[in-house]
Amino acid sequence: MRLSLPEPVKQAGLTTLAVLGLLFPQALPIILGLLLLITVTEAWAGKTLARLGSWRAVRAGAVFFLLPLLAVVLSPGAEWPWPAVGRAARLALEVSEALALGAILLALPRDTTVKRGQAVCLGLAAGALLAVIDLRTGGGLTGWLRGQPVDAITYGRSAVLSALVVAPLLLAARFPVWQRVLLVVPGVLLAFLSANLAAKLLLPVAAVAALLGLWRFGPILLGSIITLAVVLPGVLPVALTPADDCALWAGKPSAAHRLLIWTYADGLIDQRPWTGWGLDAARRLGAVAPEAAVPECARAALGRDTVPLLPLHPHNGALQLWLELGIGGAMLLPLLLIGLIRPIIERSKIDRATATSAFAGASVPLLVSFGLWQGWWLAALALLWGLVILLFAPRS
């Protein structure tokens, strides 16, 4: 006898998980694992896995396995070999989870994906609204649970997650226009209320990417982003005059700190440009990195005399790839771009624009904010891909 939950119960579960994932992004790896377990079980019971076409549709994504493979190949020369191998194994598992989730979602019946896409978007909007209320009340909703003050920094990751789905959701032709607008308003509010600059920057980037995607120029934009990532070490360091440096520290100290971090990471890349320091080495290099002096003109406002030169990671995914895997890792970027583009290039105009806006939007925090191998962030990218699939327009 086969047990199956009613579809409304499944949708309510998805909405709840979306709310929790947005409010507490650190739980996203657990949520991804739970979703994958449920979808695989459901697909097995419904014999969805027998639809090999869905697996062929994500086959191009297998190119992402080259990252952990390269890390293992380079591990004998890494500064910390065994941690590199261990992180490579975890990365291979995370890639497998993303590909499996995408394949199963592509094989679901179209009416099912519409309802479940609405359920997820409703949860994300509700989570963003709760986060806005929590911010405005100084932690009135979750302060007791967090055990620390709730401020604009608290919801930085949540703001990025909310901003990532704004452009793809606005393009979701399967939902009424009024519904799309209502669902994105809380996310936009959260992006502007948070202290996370990446959340604010990715909104216009994703909007431009959506327009270019509609005009078939999406691959050119994504290619330009990849090219920037590959050549980035060549344009560093950025030299500022003392006056400009003081102005940057006064106006946006986090940006000034980023420039220091990127310059230091660029120096480490120069030491091992061919093979890198080993996968996940940035975290260990950061533990022994020195502190940098803050300009005297900014010390009083910042409240400190020094800042760390490598806090856990370079806060730039391209530099982290160069730092840890050398030129081989950088040269994988064009192949990874092909892995992203191939599954969507033959789809409808709206689908291409939806995927392009999501990928271009995700590139902003990848290049200015989060570490490449943070578990919550990799889970967020996998779930974003799953949501994009749910938002794809029904085929005629």
Arrangement of strands in the largest sheet: 1-2
Instruction: State the low-pLDDT regions, or none.
Output: none
Q: What is the β-strand count?
A: 2
**Overall pLDDT metric:** 86
Largest sheet, described in full?
2 strands, antiparallel
Helix coverage percent: over 70%
Radius of gyration based on Cα positions: 21 Å
**Total tally of structural domains:** 2
How many DSSP H or I helices? 19
How many angstroms separate the termini?
35 Å
> How would you classify the helix and strand content by structural class?
mainly alpha
Large-scale geometry: globular
Structure description:
This protein is mainly alpha-helical. The protein folds into two domains: 7-231 and 348-391, no CATH class; 233-318, no CATH class. Helices cover 72% and strands 2% of the residues. The protein has 19 helices and two strands. The chain has helices spanning 7-23, 28-45, 52-57, 66-74, 81-107, 110-136, 143-146, 156-164, 166-170, 177-193, 197-214, 218-235, 242-251, 253-271, 281-288, 296-302, 317-345, 349-368, 375-391; strands at residues 291-293, 306-308. It has a two-stranded antiparallel ribbon. α4 runs antiparallel to α17 (317-345), α5 packs parallel to α19 and α6 (110-136) packs across α19. The protein is globular, with a radius of gyration of 21 Å. The protein starts with 6 loop residues before the first helix and ends in a 5-residue tail after the last helix. The mean pLDDT is 86.
